[in-house]
């Protein structure tokens, strides 16, 4: 009796194991599973062709990257995993970015170099000043990134600028700080060994407020270490008593130098008047009186 029970138990276990194998074969069989190939760093065309050859469905997602456009950056599932056919494979592909050539501003004046960099669509990074007697004061010694190179337009360019070039006699050249903000111009002049004597605001409605438009002594002239420099800084605030450009009234600009002469020679034969801006001087209406010679002939 006990032998029969064991025999039945063995038969039941065999049947159960066979059923498990059948279920696994039908629903969980790995016969059709494929090892995911490495697609990263491939071109998107080659990666899609390889994935579709193995029976996968491909979905592409473009992302901004510094790599060339069309390069596969990542994949899902990862390479080496066992996956079933007809599964969707996600590929992240570089769509590139706005890249521009780096301008070479070495040897330029600092202000000019910054203007060129900004005109090319780049930002100004760190500006570092060092002493180098081999280059003019205020000129760019080096830049990073260096030219030639193509970089994203949102990248900033760092500059290395000479701050002092005093000779053995203590004389230096006044650096060119025109078109610089007042604060930056002050820093460069002081770093060059000069002092700020005064800051003269100059009414200039067409200039950028707070930017330097010149110095006295002028840029490029010789000065001694410790000399004072007068900064001429643009301001858009019109001083009292100064008429705005184009305002009506008053003597036209091209007559301003002749008005006093006309007043001094004012008389019957030289009387002139102005009718408004742009009018040319005209003689007064009416016949002119005869001269003394004309009276004698009569």
3D architecture notes:
With 298 residues, this protein is α+β, with helices and mostly antiparallel strands. The protein folds into four domains: 31 residues; 66 residues, 2-Layer Sandwich (Trypsin Inhibitor V, Chain A); 136 residues, Trypsin Inhibitor V, Chain A; 35 residues, no CATH class. The chain has six helices and 17 strands. A three-stranded mixed sheet has the order 2-5-3, with helices on one face. It has a three-stranded mixed sheet with strand order 7-10-8. β16 and β17 form a beta hairpin.
Distance between the termini: 175 Å
CATH class of the largest domain: Alpha Beta
Give the number of DSSP strands: 17
> What is the overall silhouette?
rod-shaped
Reading the helices and strands in chain order gives: HEHEEEEEHEEEEEHEEEEHEEH
Please compute the radius of gyration using only Cα atoms.
42 Å
How many structural domains?
Answer: 4
- CATH third-tier fold name of the largest domain: Trypsin Inhibitor V, Chain A
Q: So how many helices?
A: 6
CATH architecture term of the largest domain = 2-Layer Sandwich
Q: Would you tell me the structural class of the helices and strands? A: alpha+beta
Range of helix content? 10-25%
Low-confidence stretches: 250-279
Overall average residue pLDDT: 76
Strand content: 25-35%
Task: Please give a quick description of this structure.
It contains six helices and 17 strands. With 298 residues, the protein is of the alpha+beta class.
Q: What key phrases describe this protein's structure?
A:
6 helices, 23% helix, 298 residues, three-stranded mixed sheet, Trypsin Inhibitor V, Chain A, 4 domains
